[in-house]
Specification:
Shape: elongated
Order of helices and strands: HHHHHHHHHH
Largest sheet: none
Number of helices: 10
Number of strands: 0
Structural class: mainly alpha
Length: 175
């Protein structure tokens, strides 16, 4: 609900200078979210070693991913995007393209390589990536997003990841 005038004052620049860099408040907001996503982590940081056992690789990936998503900053960014995304569609697009959408693509590519190497059978790697991510982002993530769950979550995270990996590996097993 802040105005461009207030932003310009807080940044100690003129409103004209602000508009020279950002065409509108939603473009400015989208740039802030994009920067926060880039600052948080690279999508490839989560990918495990390609030579690992697929179950162990997914366990490592799932644990790192869910712990990241439950961090204070990622949760805060997600809450802002959800609350402001309908008013600022560019914000939602910037967030998705810089975070979830990018990871979905990178993880899908990784799954395609696992398929090509004969470790799993995945006909649609991007769909499979969505399914795995969705299993991780279940009840605990929802409660944390709503402020209903407080850390420590390690035992629950480990149980969620183990269950997701079990379902995923059985669903995409060879043969």
């Amino acid at each position: 609900a802040v105005s461009m005038d207030a932003i310009a004052r807080a940044a100690s620049v003129s409103k004209a200078t602000l508009y020279a860099h950002f065409a509108s408040k939603d473009v400015l907001f989208a740039n802030i979210i994009h920067g926060a996503c880039q600052e948080n982590v690279s999508a490839g940081d989560f990918l495990p070693d390609a030579e690992m056992d697929i179950g162990q690789a997914l366990t490592d990936l799932g644990g790192r991913m869910l712990r990241f998503l439950l961090g204070a900053r990622p949760l805060a960014i997600y809450r802002v995007v959800v609350s402001e995304g309908t008013r600022f569609p560019e914000l939602g697009r910037a967030f998705y393209d810089s975070g979830p959408g990018l990871f979905r693509t990178v993880f899908g590519d990784w799954l395609a390589r696992q398929h090509a190497a004969g470790r799993i059978r995945v006909d649609d790697p991007v769909l499979a990536a969505d399914q795995f991510i969705s299993m991780l982002r279940g009840g605990l993530y929802m409660r944390a997003t709503l402020g209903l769950a407080a850390p420590p979550w390690d035992a629950e995270i480990d149980a969620i990841v183990a269950a997701a990996v079990g379902v995923f590996v059985r669903g995409y097993a060879l043969g």
